Fold these 2 entries.
Entry 1:
Amino acid sequence: MIKTLNIKSSSKTEFIDITDEIHEAVKESGVKNGICYICVPHTTAGVTINEGADPSVKRDILTTLNRLIPFEGDYRHMEGNSAAHIKSSLVGVSANVLIEDGKAILGTWQSVYFCEFDGPRHRRAIVKIINAIGATPQEE
Ligand code: ZN
């Protein structure tokens, strides 16, 4: 099963929590054991998994990325958004979550974030649920 999440960012840089949508996609798929592959088809955005309990964590990640990779710098890219391209490559454009017993396995404090680095824009995240047919039997 493949599903497109339509995401609307409202700031230049922003982490948007898509954890609920991931759980929903896994549930809809009916897959009991497999992999949930999340892909962001953009060059100035990304996806990451990190703490969702304390909102200060996503704030700290974002402000640190913005400090390390300033919007203005010795960049040559004509479009003027090199900082966003660099952040996208650093964070990455895909993430995987294992599915066991019909549920996405995330730690108690983990959330899945769509990472906007050149907003505000309309964005997409593609979620592919892969059924683990032919998986090796559990070693128990
Ligand atoms: Zn560009």
Entry 2:
Amino acid sequence: MPGIVIVGAQWGDEGKGKATDLLGSRIDYVVKFNGGNNAGHTVVIGDEKYALHLLPSGILTEGVTPVIGNGVVVDLEVLFDELDALIARGVDVSKLRVSANAHVITHYHRTLDKVTERFLGKRQIGTTGRGIGPAYADKINRVGIRIQDLYDENILRQKVEGALDVKNHQLVKIYNRRAIEADEIVDELLSYAERLRPMVADTALELHEALTDEKIVLFEGGQATMLDVDHGTYPFVTSSNATSGGAATGSGVAPNRIDRVIAIVKAYTTRVGAGPFPTELFDEWGDYLRETGFEFGTTTGRQRRVGWYDAPVARYASRINGVTDFVLTKLDVLDDLDTIPVCVAYDVDGVRFDEMPVNQSDFHHAKPIYEEFPGWKQDITGCRSFDDLPKNAQDYVLALEAMSGSRISAIGVGPGRDAIVVRHDLVD
Ligand code: GDP
Ligand code: IMO
Ligand code: MG
């Protein structure tokens, strides 16, 4: 069972970092295949808390080879800051491999991300401001800079000058910003080249060989299904394919080498940034979930929007990703509730939708149809088997499983590394 993908089923922050870490000791490679330092994964190991943005969470496990795939956009300053911070805490990062085909995020991408958001005004996406969208736009426009370009100064200079041609007009004439000198960008990128050199690799080939040798490769998705540029709530999405298909294109590993797709889903829902969110709560229950679940962004510190579990979203994630197993996280956050509403379908202007509406306007108008489940009113953080869970908690999990399209194979009952109930092995 060598190729395993982990994706988010909702709008991000489902606890993917913790799930990757859980599998850590059994895997040989962990591959980040999409996104960049817009991701924020918190992993709690004993008393230590690690916040990772660009590096895959598997880097925390000894013996694992972490890989940054071609589908990632890499901010080199962030890469080295994150590596140095881990080295200072005694983590061995020497095995890191970075795809020669990954694109870089530069100063002009970060600047454009911020100014375009400001110009969008009320229509803004609420991006993380890390330059993600502009870097992917350059990739698709064929004016991006790849890691391998750092090793041919002439080519690098030509490409940076080409990219800045139009951008400087935009920055100066539209956004009233100063022009950016090509030299400034080239010098900055070259300053990282030598330290980066030993990590740069044909990662698609290395992963192919690893899979042929029956090594276990875990593909770790950033963001989530509903933030996927094709399948999410466009335009309120990130700029990459965060669904399981992205694991193939973003790593160069063929789809038929992927055997298992694990989706992480929270026992309720959160979202950061703008866009539709049918089960969103604006009342005291929203505050309650936000505070109990500590729903504040790992990357931007922003307060997360919160709402009840949305079964049509989970079913959609199951279908789009080909989910074989769900990991249901943060069940403990619901411990003190008397009843727990779950959205089972939507009402769109009087019409019932059991599946995600294909039209954006319908999804914006979707009103949740709720079913109520009795709470368990008991602390479950110490439970380590399904039988340990109170009957009402078991019933809640089984009800979600029945309506979400795939089996729930593990259940998170607390932030710590070992706070998990496993029902089905996630690797074999
Ligand atoms: P990611 O972006 O999907 O990796 O998720 P984040 O790290 O941004 O957010 C998930 C948060 O939930 C982190 O702070 C985790 O430590 C925490 N967490 C994960 N699983 C559980 C769980 O089962 N219970 C509780 N209470 N917290 C959890
Ligand atoms: P993890 O991996 C939650 C959201 C931003 C914004 C939209 C576009 O921790 O789950 P971008 O900067 O990517 O262009 O922003 O996507 N977003 C996330 N929300 N978790 C994330 O990552 C996110 N990465 C991006 O808030 O709405
Ligand atoms: Mg996160």
